[in-house]
């Protein structure tokens, strides 16, 4: 078998529609495009996105540098400086911070931020740590455990 032998079956290919060739051909005069109007004229009609003169969607929407996160993660945040008031060798969790009153409300899993100074050794169990917070806790002789959210 050769490439030129690979042809479609007879009558499987439909011939193209020849419009505007007289009334007997079935698509004479207006060529099946209706009567008058923009879409009946020759050419391609309107460009993509054109809405008939109305301000198109791509010009109506605001142009943003970024899109907002639809389901953002909400954390209960505590700075390292607040943990400095706790006694040494304390295990710090969200529940223990609520008990001591350093945190008044639970807005999700605990995240430790790095603002402030720490000089007591603590075992901190939180869902997330910033790099500076982890560095300050470990420099003070404590440990950081990433607990499940």
TrEMBL record:
<keyword id="KW-0694">RNA-binding</keyword>
<dbReference type="GO" id="GO:0003735">
    <property type="term" value="F:structural constituent of ribosome"/>
</dbReference>
<comment type="subunit">
    <text>Part of the 50S ribosomal subunit.</text>
</comment>
<comment type="function">
    <text>Binds to the 23S rRNA.</text>
</comment>
<feature type="domain" description="Large ribosomal subunit protein uL15/eL18">
    <location>
        <begin position="77"/>
        <end position="144"/>
    </location>
</feature>
<dbReference type="GO" id="GO:0006412">
    <property type="term" value="P:translation"/>
</dbReference>
<comment type="similarity">
    <text>Belongs to the universal ribosomal protein uL15 family.</text>
</comment>
<dbReference type="InterPro" id="IPR005749">
    <property type="entry name" value="Ribosomal_uL15_bac-type"/>
</dbReference>
<feature type="compositionally biased region" description="Basic residues">
    <location>
        <begin position="11"/>
        <end position="20"/>
    </location>
</feature>
<dbReference type="Pfam" id="PF00828">
    <property type="entry name" value="Ribosomal_L27A"/>
</dbReference>
<dbReference type="InterPro" id="IPR021131">
    <property type="entry name" value="Ribosomal_uL15/eL18"/>
</dbReference>
<keyword id="KW-0687">Ribonucleoprotein</keyword>
<dbReference type="GO" id="GO:0022625">
    <property type="term" value="C:cytosolic large ribosomal subunit"/>
</dbReference>
<protein>
    <recommendedName>
        <fullName>Large ribosomal subunit protein uL15</fullName>
    </recommendedName>
</protein>
<feature type="region of interest" description="Disordered">
    <location>
        <begin position="1"/>
        <end position="55"/>
    </location>
</feature>
<dbReference type="InterPro" id="IPR001196">
    <property type="entry name" value="Ribosomal_uL15_CS"/>
</dbReference>
<feature type="compositionally biased region" description="Gly residues">
    <location>
        <begin position="23"/>
        <end position="35"/>
    </location>
</feature>
<keyword id="KW-0689">Ribosomal protein</keyword>
<dbReference type="InterPro" id="IPR036227">
    <property type="entry name" value="Ribosomal_uL15/eL18_sf"/>
</dbReference>
<keyword id="KW-0699">rRNA-binding</keyword>
<dbReference type="GO" id="GO:0019843">
    <property type="term" value="F:rRNA binding"/>
</dbReference>
<dbReference type="InterPro" id="IPR030878">
    <property type="entry name" value="Ribosomal_uL15"/>
</dbReference>
């Amino acid at each position: 078998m050769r490439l030129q032998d690979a042809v479609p079956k007879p009558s499987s290919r439909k011939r193209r529609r020849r419009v505007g060739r007289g009334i007997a051909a079935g698509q004479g005069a207006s060529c099946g495009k209706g009567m008058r109007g923009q879409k009946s004229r020759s050419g391609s009609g309107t460009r993509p996105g054109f809405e008939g003169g109305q301000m198109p969607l791509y010009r109506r929407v605001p142009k943003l540098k970024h899109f907002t996160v639809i389901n953002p993660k909400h954390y209960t945040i505590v700075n390292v400086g607040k943990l400095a008031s706790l006694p040494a060798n304390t295990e710090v969790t969200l529940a223990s911070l609520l008990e001591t009153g350093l945190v008044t409300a639970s807005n999700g899993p605990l995240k430790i931020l790095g603002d402030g100074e720490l000089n007591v050794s603590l075992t901190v169990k939180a869902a997330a740590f910033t790099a500076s917070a982890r560095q300050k806790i470990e420099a003070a002789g404590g440990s950081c455990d990433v607990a499940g959210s």
